[in-house]
Design a protein that fits this description.
alpha+beta; Umud Fragment, subunit A; 2 domains; 8-stranded antiparallel sheet; 4-stranded antiparallel sheet
């Protein structure tokens, strides 16, 4: 083999090596881009992390807990009593709140002698911080496509007693798992 042929062969090998690096880099960029788009899709439509901003859901959720919210569920069913939901409240549609559903369409919700009464029945609520609320709330009928929500820390919760019912369209999803801090991992 002549010296010129050896140089040409070496040049071809360097070009192939460079093309291989570019192809590998392109593949990595494609994979990272696809993973990013998939993560955005999952957060927008399936599961979204949410940080608890206040003590309004104590003892169920502590301030600073992180939960996963199922955004997919309510495409197929309406929120039910007992669900812990993330929603936009009527008073501040840009902010996310998290509360427990205590009344759905057609329910008559009241607080009598410090106890939650739905459709004339005092509710048993073992998840409450304090079983007796500091104030009563006059009977209210939940309208069509609405829910009535309250925090589990009833005496320190800004909820439907203050801002009224929440339109079902404003519900972002149901919280189903505490994932942080690690010592508090639990289902809701």
């Amino acid at each position: 083999m002549s010296e010129a042929q050896i140089r040409r062969q070496a040049e071809r090998q360097r070009n192939r090596a460079g093309a291989g690096i570019l192809a590998s880099l392109g593949e990595v960029i494609l994979i990272v881009g696809a993973a990013f788009i998939l993560a955005l899709f999952v957060q927008q439509f399936v599961i979204k992390p949410f940080s608890i901003p206040s003590a309004s859901m104590v003892p169920t959720l502590q301030e600073g807990d992180r939960v996963l919210v199922n955004r997919f569920l309510f495409y197929f069913q309406e929120p039910e009593k007992g669900d812990v939901v993330v929603f936009h409240p009527p008073i501040d549609p840009e902010t996310d709140y998290i509360k427990r559903v205590v009344g759905v369409e057609g329910d008559v919700v009241a607080v009598v002698d410090g106890r939650l009464v739905v459709n004339g029945e005092v509710q048993e609520e073992p998840y409450l911080n304090t079983p007796i609320m500091n104030s009563d709330f006059e009977a209210f009928t939940v309208g069509p496509d609405q829910i009535f929500v309250m925090g589990d820390n009833r005496n320190s919760s800004g909820d439907s007693r203050i801002f009224g019912p929440v339109d079902v369209d404003e519900v972002l999803g149901e919280a189903f798992l505490v994932y942080w801090p690690l010592g508090r991992i639990d289902t809701l």
